[in-house]
Amino acid sequence: MKTKLFSYNYENTVIHNLSGLIKFICFLLLTFATMYTYDIRVTLGMLVFSVIILRISRIKFSQIKVMLIYVLIFILINAIFTFFFAPEHGVTLYGTRHPLLKLWGKFSLTQEQLLYQVTLAFKYLSVVPLGIIFLLTTNPSEFASSVSAVGVPYKASFAISLTLRYFPDILRVYNDISQAQQARGLEMSIKAKMKERVKNSLMIIIPLIFSTLERIEVVTNAMDLRGFGKEKRRTWYCKQKPRPADFYALGVSLVVTLAVAAVAAFLNHGRYFNPFI
Amino acid sequence: MKGIFKVTTRTIVAAGLGAALFALLFMFVKIPSPVPGTYIQTAYGLAGFFGVLFGPIAAGLMAFIGHAISDAVQYGSPWWSWVISSGVAGFIYGFAFLRTRVEEGIFGWKDILTYNIIQIIGNAIAWLFLAPVLDIVIYAEPANKVFAQGAMAFGSNAVVAGVVGTLLLVAYAATRTRKGSLNKKS
Q: Domain total for chain B?
């Protein structure tokens, strides 16, 4: 249960020192590029690129181990699902059919399906480091100001900021209630029956939710008394002015994104890299 | 109609704190289901509850932020198509705001029915339509797979939003003082 959430630790690296706004824009640009492309070469390139950034930002393997395991399990399950539901999806995408292996019944492995699924797996894998870098190197307080700076209404940005601040608190309250209830004999594991488990999880979340409702009233009053939402705009305490390094980072991300777009437009004539024609 | 879309400080705080709660439930209070790798998410019951109490903007923002954060923490990056669908589902749950008598301390059969109809419509739009379509557009996943996943999500989320949401609302109504519960002694 002891998950290290948002274990943001300041380190003196180029990535940590970037302003939150620039980092957020770079993150969005690069994620968009990775999600858009269906070219295995581009995807692998992006993966290498993001792993290099991961090294530069001095993120240790122990920090991301749990996440990585989750992601790998997810990718595996997703791949199995995809294959069983649509073993011929690659064929429809690429328009040709090169059988590779005859499996049982109507299932057979084609080169197209293999390429499609491998690309898909790497695509999901290569988005992950970007998200991890952004999460682990951005000061949570600065995040809200960055979101608001890209055009999200400041009230919505403030909701995000509240979430990030309240999360550690709520985790503590949840652990307290959960342990107290389990000490009183509440069974939450696979041993209990389905119906029992639903009922028992309610016994934990009801006190949690009602204590949150109280806190909503308190925080609302506190913010109203300080005049929240009276003006159309607001300033942010944690907002950095862009520095030269920020422009370089933005430049690199733009070049990478444009390169991905150029590969799609001129080399592949579309999202998919098709070696079969 | 203006009433339910009004953004007050309360809406924002409810969205922010609700999102933290949503993310927490999403990560820890999920019930393993018979299908491996999928969970019954109690978080949607909470989204329904907040929808009735604080309206569409609060519930929509809450589900969107909460889902994005729990995805980011668990997988490193949000699964955008489902995050957006969560937000839309929450937004539609919020249409039950001001349509029930929960703040007056009454949550009877009529209110339960209102809430559940709205909740089922919200889940249907989000999981039977939006999530699969976005999956195809953003991630180019095979259609029959995503529609099967969507149908599964619709089933479990509608049941959870129905059961957990209704129970929470009934429990909440019991804590409110009933309108006209005090009588002048004649």
A: 1
